[in-house]
Amino acid sequence: MKIVIPCMIYLGSALMVYNILHYYRFARKMKKTGVLEMRRTFLYLPFFLLVFFLIGYLITALFGNPTLVMGGILFGGSVFVFLILNVMIRIVGYIQNDEHRINAMYNELREELTSITKDRLAVFRVNLTKDIVEDRAGTDLYDSDKTARTYTDLMLNRFPDLLIKPAERYGPGLFTREGLLKHFQNGHNTASETIYARRKSVRNGYFLMEAALAQQPVTGEVIAFITERDYNRDMIDRVIWNKALSEEYDAIAYIASGQLGTVLSSGERNHPDVLLSGDGETEYGEAVGRLVSSLDLGADSPDRLLDALKLERVERELSDKDAYAVDFSYHADSEIVYKRFTFFAADREAHFYALLISDTTEIRREQEEQNRRLEEALEQAKASSAAKTAFLSNMSHDIRTPMNAIIGFTNLARQCAGNPGKTREYLEKILTSSNHLLSLINDVLEMSRIESGKIELANSPCNLARLVEDFHAMVVNLAEAKNQELTVDFSGVTNKNVICDKLRLNQVLLNLLSNAVKYTPDGGRVEVRISQKGRTPGGRGVYEFRVKDNGIGMTPEFAAHVFEAFEREKTSTVSGIQGTGLGMAITKKIVDLMGGSIEVVTAPGKGTEFIVSVEFEISPEETEPDAAKKDESPEPDFTGKRLLLVDDMEINREIAVAVLEMNGFLVEEADDGEKAVSMVQASRPGYYDAVLMDIQMPVMNGYDAARKIRLLENRNLAGIPIIAMTANAFEEDRKAAFEAGMNGHVAKPIDVKALINTLKGIL
Which CATH architecture has domain 367-449? Predict the structure, then answer.
């Protein structure tokens, strides 16, 4: 026992000295690395315990006679301290390794953020715990960014440059010191916020502030690495992307293992939001059930829609197809809304599907409107076809009537060759019937040209007073033949000189007036009243033309269609009156071209009144000063005048030669344009006084022949007068003739008076 106690004392003392030296080296190492700097008492307390035990050993060994109990306590305490000390050192070693790792990550983050400084407008390293700006850099720093010492001052100085300020007075809430600290305490290591501000470079726009938050390993202080960059392009891309998707789709969602999640939702008025659950996920079957039960499907079956949207049905449909679409409709806000759910298989094996929800209401309405228009067009086509069939029937009747007269009176004239009086009477009737037949043909051709858009107004100065005199002179004989009273009132017109298409206006008035005379019984009354209703703000005159009669009138049913092509009222009174049913349609089209309006007031047995309202530009000068003067020049003598008649139709040449020779002309003939050019080129200047040129001919047409004559080297021959004498009788044909170098235009069938007057004017 005497040996055991001293051994325990000496061994315990040696062990304690070892513990003190081992812990001393450990503590110095901890201090040198800075680990556990805030826990110095944690280092000093074990050291004091070791020294205490060592002193206890020394006192016991030098001055006492220790018992077995005391020796055991001291030795056991030394062993216990040794074991505890080694466990503590091992634990601290683990902590040290973790702190080294965290410190390495911290330094790596700091280096990474420092490396992107050149690409950022501003970069800050901020100690949020101490409210200190530790470092700053960037390509577009404010002056206040460079001088602010605290993060609070930094944000306060930046706040006035926010163009769209937050509701709170103090800075953007998330990026205040308190906001970032709270954000970090809630477990977030990053933060971002979009701001709209004015930068130092006086450039306004969107900027993205981002923060990476970390705790300083040694001190435990919260450090924020804050960057700011231009976000204009990103904002535009995001807006365009979301806008494009939201305009195309109400929502974009996905189905993953039976769970429904939302990617994008536009939140439109008629959007079935009950299907979606915001940012989270919901069970797809439950969502579909809520959707179907919440909609007013009207006549559609809820069971049908529920079956079509079931996940099992979706997976079955997509097993061999790329897409599966479900269309349905429901009532919302007193209207029918059409929707389409389109499913796509993103990954069949993983049961991952994309769902696009789109509104097809406008598309369906457009389709329905298009179908309605097609049905209306079909009905109009049927009606037009029926009208044209009726028109052809009427035309067959109306054409055969004058043709029957022409053929019949021609045969009678042949049989009465020895009776000049009868022959002349028959020839006059043949001429009347021929003119009527020509008017029928002209109406059909005119309507065809109007329908094809080939008519254009040729505006020129016009004196309305003289225009009225002209068409009055044309109709007065017709009215007198039926013993009708024809009156024209022009007193309501202030500005008589206007700019208009005189030919078309005259055509409109003649159509209305001739119809009034035609459909008014003998002894009736026809009135024409023209008045001026002031001026437009642009200075144009507003004119009203009224043509009224006390004739047979029209039924309301027919009056509603009077301006439609091929329409004629079928009554016993009208059936005996000749006409094509095109006159009023032509009149309406011409008035429309003039930008005016025409209306009718009528009743059966009470007459009819047509009211035309048009606007004309007022002409400041007197026009057509010699239009009303009677041509009192002597009748010309064409004896000895030589003409070259060019026409490929022998019968046309025969008629023309007879007419021309009766008026004293010498006539030579050519049957195509090329021969005409050769004959003119081979002649001497003055041999031909003029050329009468047909247009549609074989070998060379009349336009080309006229151009070649104008290009002859002999300028006297090249200047010979050329007159188009052709069945191409429209205004554009006249223009084409003059553009080809011709001097006049006479339409076929030949009006002898018009032809002679044209030759008189040129020769």
Answer: Orthogonal Bundle (1.10)
Show the tokens assigned to 343.
């499913």
| CATH class of the domain at 117-237 | alpha beta
| pLDDT-based confidence at residue 560 (cuts at 50, 70, 90) | confident
- pTM, 2 dp: 0.43
Q: Report the pLDDT averaged over residues 557-565.
A: 81
Size (the chain), residues: 763
Residues forming beta bridges with residue 253, ordered by sequence position: 262, 355
State how far the Cα of 625 lies from the Cα of 462, in Å rounded to an integer: 10
Q: Looking at per-residue confidence, does 194 or 392 come out higher?
A: 194
**What's the gap between Cα 586 and its chain centre?**
35
pLDDT at position 249 is 76
User: Alpha carbon of 423 to those of 192, 405, 606, 656: distances in Å?
Assistant: 110, 14, 42, 22
What is the Cα–Cα distance from 75 to 16, expressed in whole angstroms? 9
Model confidence at 3: pLDDT above 80: no
Q: Can 117-237 and 249-359 be said to share one CATH topology?
A: yes
Neighbouring C-beta atoms of residue 554, cutoff 10 Å: 22
Name the CATH superfamily for 458-618: Histidine kinase-like ATPase, C-terminal domain (3.30.565.10)
- Tokens read off for 58: 């020394």
- The overall average pLDDT reported for the chain is 79
Return the CATH number of 642-762, one of 3.40.50.10300, 3.40.50.2300, 3.30.70.260, 2.40.50.140: 3.40.50.2300
Tell me which residue of 316, 313, 293 sits closest to 303, measured CA to CA: 293
CA dihedral sign of residues 54, 58, 61, 64: negative
- Round to whole Å and give the CA distance between 284 and 307: 13
* pLDDT range class, residue 669, cuts 50, 70, 90: very high
